[in-house]
Amino acid sequence: MERSQISSGQHLLSVLRDLYESYGYTRYKMSKFEEYDLYVRNKDFLVSDSVITFTDTNGRLMALKPDVTLSIIKNGSDLPGFVQKVYYNENVYRISKGTHSFKEILQTGLECMGDIDVYCIFEVLLLACRSLKRISDRCVLDLSHLGVVSALLDDLSQPREVTDALLRCLGEKNGHELQNICCAAGVAAEKTAALTALIGLSGTPKTVLPQLEKLYPATLDQTPLKELKTLTALLESTDCADLLRLDFSVVHTMKYYNGVVFKGFVQGVPDSILSGGQYDHLMKKMHRVGGAIGFAVYHDALERFGKAEPYDADTVLLYDETTPPETLLHAIEALQKSGAQVSAQRSLPEKFRCRRCVRLKDGEVTDLG
């Protein structure tokens, strides 16, 4: 399969597992069920607040898990000076964007929790980038920093409902509505201009950071800006420099998230197929010590894209009843060495589509197209 094609299915699971384990992340497995109360108390954190529930034999209201992160936090332990690094391949139960009905959705992700530092944040961002590259070489990671955004919003000295509305405008890239809200709230013209400019900031770090420094007042806390510059510099020193983009329309609820937040996209899929960020606030809310950062890969988005794949198979090797099995095996293995995924068939049904079709006859492989 060409790298420009999106990888999906069991092969992708294996590739991502090997990637995460190579950095010391261990497999986390969980039950399909959790107490419903866990999700009620943190419903704003969920992609959807629609949850499938049932009553257990002991009378407890249970739920089919719509999320994995909450369970990992709930069941983890606080170990001073230690960072818990786990990854997962779990089915979650939520409303699919494709069908708008409940669906069992495979989700792969990782979480880094505990005494995290700049390296931990960088490592997770790097693994997010490399996850995207293993899915498709035509990908991009949009990165934002809620510390920068919240500093600019806090500087307005506005009520929570106003800053929440402005945050929504940032996420929607709605500069017109943002200006209307600022005008109604009496926000100073220069501060309104800074927020409006923030909506338009999108591009490579080398392009965006100089512009961000100009609109970020020197009177504000410089820590988030410095952290963002450090992280982008680290990522630009890796093989992921070409897919990194700063975009401050990437926002998550500040009730749970802080620091860096990010989304991953691949060409051909309209929605983000990867999403993550720092969620120290959620850790604190669930009475955990330390910080946390993680991300998830959404396989349902890839499945919807996969339906548009024009091929039923990569390479088909046609043979007949006179072909010795050992000769057939040698031919298959030779094709596999060139990177092909080979399906040996004696004939093909009507309208079967393959990227390449070859015929094995008298020990020779002939390309049929």
Name the features.
369 residues, alpha+beta, BirA Bifunctional Protein, domain 2, 2 domains, 9-stranded mixed beta sheet, 13 helices, 38% helix, globular
Question: What does the model show?
Answer:
The chain is α+β, with helices and mostly antiparallel strands and 369 residues long. It folds into two domains: 297 residues, 2-Layer Sandwich (BirA Bifunctional Protein, domain 2); 55 residues. It is built from 13 helices and 16 strands. The strands form three sheets. Strands 1-5-6-12-11-10-7-9-8 form a nine-stranded mixed sheet, sandwiched between helices. Strand 10 and strand 11 form a beta hairpin. Helix 1 runs antiparallel to helix 4, helix 4 crosses helix 10 and helix 6 runs antiparallel to helix 7. The radius of gyration is 24 Å and the shape is globular. The model has no long low-confidence stretch (mean pLDDT 88).
Describe the protein's topology.
Elements: H1 10-21, E1 26-27, E2 33-35, H2 36-40, E3 53-55, E4 61-64, H3 69-75, E5 83-95, E6 102-114, H4 118-135, E7 139-145, H5 146-154, H6 160-172, H7 175-185, H8 189-200, E8 202-203, H9 205-215, H10 223-236, E9 244-247, E10 258-266, E11 274-278, H11 280-285, E12 291-298, H12 299-306, E13 313-318, H13 325-337, E14 342-345, E15 354-361, E16 364-367
Helix pairs in contact: 1-4, 4-10, 6-7, 7-8
